[in-house]
Amino acid sequence: MRSKTIFLSLFMLMFSTFVLCQDEIEVCGEEYIILVEIPEVGTYTLISEPAIYPEGWDTLSSIIFWRTAIQTPPEKCLVSLASNREILGDIPSNIYQKKRYRSQRRYFRDSLKTAWDIPDQESIYITQGRAHYYLIEEALPQIHESVPIFLEEGIDPWYAQAILLIESPGKIRKSRAGAYGPYQLMKTVGRQFGLSINKEVDERADLQKSARATARFLREVVIPNTIRLVERRGQPYIEESLWFKLLVLHVYHAGAGNVAGALRKIPYSVKENELIIQLWKTKSRRFRNASQNYSQIVLAAKLELEKLIYQKKGKLIPPYFFQSSR
User: Fold this and answer.
1) How confident is the model at residue 15 (pLDDT cuts 50, 70, 90)?
2) Which of 111, 113, 207, 225 has the fewest CB atoms within 10 Å, i.e. the most exposed one?
3) Single pTM value for the model
4) How far apart are CA 133 and CA 74, in angstroms?
């Protein structure tokens, strides 16, 4: 779905149902842009993703793990099984951080496996809590401001929400690789799509300009490359399917070449949702932990956003859709 006209006509439809559950908000029907009023916070835009629940993404142990990690303070580390991210327990972060050598950390992990009666052939991960990084509430203004820009560029604003929730929520950060700004764009990408980046100015830090550059990058490079990867596997697809959008995010983060390297290790018979789940477990030369985790964290952050709105008693604002001021 590329054109602004198609997006606007879709999102101007009314919902059939809006259900508040104990731990989640579920929007039934198609994907919609919703205005939500959150007491003492403000009025912001939420992009619903109803496929999460009926397709069972919210029940996967890896998503439960990342939801827990997002809620856990950095003073704690989660201990989980490497095979499925099932959480075994937690430990104080300073205990693990004091072990600076690989041999010390390996011995410590082995001692935990013995204590929890984990088989020798099973590996475990120790992950520091991420509550200090994934500041979900602070990403809301960025999402709200980015939605109309993505619509103007004919790109599903679901991507704006997904990226802003996990890349640099509420803060302007620079990665070790040199990515910068709310959308964590590399210099070459920023310049390619019209941003000024030099010693005096770096427009990647400008939310509106970087949002437009990101939308164009998705439209002209990322989504076409994702389509080529899928077609190469002989995989039928619908661009609005959740599994396809998650694959787009992997290409956005890791690059088409690195995703292609990982996909080559997955049998062609593996398709759609299972393809994404297998990708989470597949390592290639430059497709490793951060790349594997990317869309897992997106789903976890989306669920945490809905939980936040529920806990703060957020309410839909009639007529329940976003209208661009353009």
Assistant:
1) very low
2) 111
3) 0.87
4) 9
